[in-house]
Amino acid sequence: MGKLKVPKNGNRKDLIVKAGAALFREKGFGAASMRDLAETLGIEAASLYNHIRSKNEILESICFNVANRFNTHLDEIETSSNTPLKKIETLLRFHIQQMLENYEEVIVSDREWKHLEDPYLSNFRTQRRNYRKRLAAIIEDGIKKGEIKKIDAPTAVVILLQAVSGIESWHRSTAKISGGELEDNMVLILVEGMKK
Asked: pTM value?
């Protein structure tokens, strides 16, 4: 066992969080241990505690890093002058790109957040609920403007987010289309399907 090898433009905590995301995705938060994480990083388990206090801290970092990225992007979209349908397309493309580029972190934040402890759990649950409401409001605006079919906006949000979550199977596939083709196909099916 050696020292923690940190890339040039990184820091130790980021390296630990990234390795933690891969481990939590593979084993699940409950089954993963700090010893597993130390082995993955090639260091002694005791050394981890010099950089991070617990695996809960790693999960908090993963969940809130992802939430902050998504909320910041949504803030930009909401204030843009795009039509509601274009806003939905832009958001969908962002979600897909995050699943392609930051797959492990996004999957862990989506699947393992229930293991957060309060006050983080309550905060994260509220952020998820508010994010979905904001997406639904964009769809409702599109319905009012006659751009989107008369559909139940909260149901549409669930379908969009579940479809993006399904990209996990694309990652496991051996015979798959490119990420760009996947994104274009999903936008065509999901956004065009809402268009009035």
From this structure: 0.88
